[in-house]
Amino acid sequence: MTPELQSRILADSRDRVGWLRARARGITATDVANLTSDKAITRVADQKLMGSRFSGNSYTDHGRRREPEIAAWVAATHGIQPSSALFHAVVERRHLATPDGVGLDAHGRLRLAEIKTTNKPFRSIPRTYLRQVWWQQHVTGAERTLFVWEEHRDFQPVHDEPKSMWIDRDEREIGQLVRLATALIDELYHRTTGNARPVAPEAPAPVPVSNRERLRERDIFRALALSD
């Protein structure tokens, strides 16, 4: 890991409380995975504000158990070390990601790893996972990610080794995700400040508010840790 990237670490998932708190302050790869289009912004904002009812199941438990073993395989075969760090982007500190692995290639270029377990064979990588990968690349600045998956049957690995493939950075896809993430931040801001969300460019400018009122709104928004 480069010193520059290390300087952008906000939290570590091994401190789960601190990690969850830091994640609540921005837009994560998990949030972006569900941003399929503009129509999804309202639903994702609901999840961000009210939390998800999903707390895990036997499949997610299996994934957590297997991830260290798969990460060790990635480190041994590709030199990408396991990572539990939460990073923020260079320009927009509210853009956050926790890749499963971080490393440098022989030329000093940043490489990431993303690990999944599945009980179904992948014909192609699901778009949900691709959005996570592209977002992680956006946040960290990486050009490539090793996507690794282990298929299991009745929670027993099907193959001797996981399968993997490289995913290259896609600026067009990243640009779309950044646009949707910006709209999501706007939606969260307007919900938490009580202001109506602007719906058209020709909408009249908001009535100026006092500095005291502006500070009050900012404090409210800081409860979400998504403040400007």
UniProtKB/TrEMBL annotation:
The species is Microbacterium stercoris
Query: What name does this protein carry?
Result: YqaJ viral recombinase family protein
Pfam families in alphabetical order: YqaJ
The residue ranges of the YqaJ viral recombinase domain are 19-143
The top of its lineage is: Bacteria, Bacillati, Actinomycetota, Actinomycetes, Micrococcales
What is the top-level taxon of the source organism?
Answer: Bacteria
Q: Which InterPro entries match?
A: PDDEXK-like_dom_sf, Restrct_endonuc-II-like, YqaJ_viral_recombinase
